[in-house]
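Q: Predict the assembly, please.
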Amino acid sequence: MKQVTQAFKSPDLIGQIIIIMASAVLSLACTGCDAGGKARELALWPSIDTAWPGVRADAECGGAERTTLDTFEGAIEDRDSFAVSFEWPVIKTAATSGIGAQIGDGVIGPGVSESKLERVRQFDEAVSKLIRAPPSR
Amino acid sequence: MIVPFLTRSPAGGRVVSHNHAKGSPMQEQFQTLLRNTLTEMQGSVKGDLERVTQYAAERTAHLSTIVGEPGFDQAVIAERDNVLLEARMVAVEQADMIDRRRIEIIGGLLQIGAAALARI
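A: Predicted assembly structure:
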């Protein structure tokens, strides 16, 4: 038992524990824990770029002002998540109204309107994901 | 990273290197922590891939029911955007989960190490 206790107190074991703890802290520092940031930069923002022209067209039909749309488009180009989140509600309302107006004019059918409304919903969810919630413990 | 755990034989003899599943309690705790995390992540990634595939199938099925409607070409573009946004949001969710798990693993490692040091 005394020999086991001595083995447990050996400098080798203490050194290994300290190495593991230091490696853990270094790993955190080096990787930066920002896979989410990279995914937003490389995946989410480009998909917003792709979907925006269609959403913009619907918002124009809904009477959104050109300056508002241009400001929003500029925020997307600048990857300004806060500006996009701030301006989006007005755009969303206009896009939804615009889709309704297109059905009323007979420009699109009900099934097409469902596809467009789904795009507005997806765009809304994408905008909400731009600003990351702090990691929960 | 697998760190070989060195121990001395009870007789105080030569140092022996162990690098297998049955090691010190600390080693076992570390391996359990990694195993549980990886199993949970595998299930999550598989589930998310199935979710995107199912969503794409649903949107394609919807398109097939509205062929010939006024503005059908606009619906095709809209559905392309829908599937793209869904897939990219799933990627963001996965990446956020990886960040959370990484923090948890590192926290677990520090706890295991601190507990081991406290016993010395």
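Strands of chain B lie at 5-8, 15-18. Residues 26 and 112 of chain B are 6 Å apart (CA to CA).
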